[in-house]
Every structure is written in structure tokens, then in C-alpha cells.
Amino acid sequence: MDVVQLDYRVPPEDLRPYVTLFYHFRADLAVFDDVERADHAQLRFRLRSGAEASYRFADGRCQPSPMLHVIGPTTGAIRTRAEGPIELVGMGLQPAGWHALIGIEASAMIDRAADACDLLSVGVVDAAAAMRAVNDIDARIDIAASFVRRAVAIGARCSTEFAARIDAWLAGSASPNVVELVAMTGLSRRQVERRCNALYGAPPRVLARKYRALRAASALASGSASLDELLAEGFYDQSHLIRELKRFTGMTPRQLRERPTLLAQLTISQRHALHGQVHPIISDT
User: Disulfide check for 38: which of 55, 74, 109, 228 has CB 3.0–4.6 Å away?
Assistant: First the structure.
């Protein structure tokens, strides 16, 4: 068995507006220390871990990682460190999932982690206990899915139409144009920015930069695009491309091509394998 394992599962159809992917992560190491890319908000159930665990965010803030925790939407790479062995079940939260489960504006939690017990119902503790009682990955993810289903039913359901338009805009171009988004929604620019901040934790221009960089990083690491091809997709020059990749993935183009971290390799290869099963904004980044 591999020392580090990451297994993704596509959410059931009824949960896809709320969850990007479920995943099971395991690291049989004394200390796990790696870099995570910028991503959607995350809800994580640590089922087994050493005493110390923390995240260092793009702005330099270091926060402890409770056993059950929420990470807000991230605008840069994260350094994650934890004493092992580690085992956890997690999920990426779609903007509608954030609204239904967490309820507070995503912009208030940008690049931050918090104890899930403070933000969610007591059911989160029961779900974690149920996961620890079984060993099968799919059984654990079924428990996580049931928890989300109950939480969404209890919480206020938000319309997913706006989030679907944002995702389509992000996936529709290598370098999304904010003017086109405003025209697509029929809202004012101020209204679009306010709703993006509430659901995604960032305004459209930051989202466009984030997903342009993640798409480029994925293409470089997989060998599906060259540096020259990526420079034609909205980056001013090579220095601009390097800065953006470093900010949102924690790695330079050379590192992504030649020496990607283990976590980056697992994330990119397994997301690519889900192409056609999930939205391109998930599989292509």
C-alpha cells in the first residue's frame, strides 16, 4: 500500500450543486508537509491524526487545524503540515454548498480555517463518529453525503442559477472577461461582485485569475500545453505567468513540469481522470 493515498469520489446527482468532490486521504508518515493549491472551500473530517496540525495561508497567517474543520475559499497556495499517521474524509464545497451549510459570507472566511463544530450543526460530530466506526472508503463517503443531505435540507436552500453561470463563465475561456460575465447575468457590476463575494469569497476578477492559473498549472503538469501556448492565454509575459502560478499553486512552471509535489501530482492526475463526470472547472484544474 502506498504511503500517501488520495481517492476522489464524484458526488451523487442531488449533491452536485453543493459538493465538488468527496475525497479520502491517508498518509502513513510521521509528519506530512506539503503544498495545497488554491481551491474551493473545504470541509474536512480528520479521523486519525497526531496532536499537531496546521495550515499556513498565502498571507502568512498560520492557523491550527482542528479534527473537524472548515477552510474558506483560498486565494493562494497553502502549506499544510500535520503529525501522522493521518486519515481524513473531506469535500470541496460549491458556492451553493457553502451558502447552505455555512451560511456566512464566504468573503469573511477567505484564506482562513475554523472549527467545523462552531460553524455547523452538532450533526458534524455524529458524522465523524460514524465514519470512524467503519473502515471502507465508500461507506465513509456515504456517511459524509448523508450529512450534507441533512444539512442542506435543514438550512436555507439557495438558487444555484447564479453559481452555475459563474462556473460556466470560468470554464468557458482561458482568460474570462468580467464585462462578459456582467452582460451574461443581467446584473450590475456591483451586484455581481457582491454575490460573488458572498458565494465564492472573492470578486470575479480574482476568480478569473485563480482559475486561469490553476488551468495553466494542470496543463503544464500533465504536458498538455507548452509554456508558449499558455502565454497566449491571457498572461502578459513569462514573469506574469510565473507570479500567478506561484501565488495560486505554490510552484513555478519548471517545478510543475519537472518536480511537482506529491500532493500536486495526485490532485491533478485524479481530477483529470474524472473528465466528463464532473464540471470542467473541477476536472480541468
Answer: 74
